[in-house]
Amino acid sequence: AKGLMQLMPRTATSFGLPIDKISNPELNIKAAVKAIKSIDNSLKVKISDPTERIKFILAAYNSGIAHVYDAIALAAKYGKNPNIWTDNVREFILLKSRPEYYNDPIVKYGYFRGNQTVEYVDKVLRVYKIYQEKMPKWTILLSIQLYLYINLKPNELIMKKTYLSVAVVLALGGSMLFSSCIGQFALTNKVLDWNN
Fold it and tell me: Which of 109, 63, 111, 107 minimizes the C-alpha distance to 85?
């Protein structure tokens, strides 16, 4: 994985980002947002609840959507709710590391070590919740305005979701969860609007 959003080269090129520009932060973020929106569109068919779908999207961003589809199929086969992440599909992402599950005829994409994906989803959601509880909206807005004023050229002050997402994450102090937060903000439209 390469660049700010840790895109796989094949993913980057499929969303219009040439390999020689994969380290460009702005282009990397734009390609990642396209990838996240694509995942969202693919999962809307199966997971109608947007709040629940965020968990699936984070998992798919980390693991690839194919393993998430396998876990959804396993959850349905074994009587769990295939539309709910916690205690349902999440468990089958983990079970895809065991032969009796990854060799199941319903599984199309084979073995997967799901512990990293589960930890990724859990950590992103935990940190996001902490930020929501501890950071009043006005503080985030002020931080975004300050970041944009200091770091972007005047002609770049077009309020795009990608810029706002970066600013929100930077305003929150940044972390190894940078890419996840950007994706989650852009995806859920919880990117703060200047009109609010």
Answer: 63
Residue found by looking up tokens 């501890």 in the block: 134
Structure confidence by residue, pLDDT tens digits, 139-159: 655 555 555 555 544 444 443
Token reading at 2: 């390469």
The set of long-range contacts for 90-98, using a CB threshold of 8 Å and a minimum separation of 24, is: 90/55, 90/59, 90/118, 90/121, 93/59, 93/63, 93/67, 93/68, 93/117, 93/118, 94/118, 96/67, 96/70, 96/71
Closest CA to 191 of 154, 170, 163, 172: 163
Smallest Cα–Cα separation from 53: which of 76, 92, 31, 85? Answer: 85
Least Cα distance to 177 among 22, 35, 61 occurs for 61
Which neighbouring-strand residues pair with 182? none
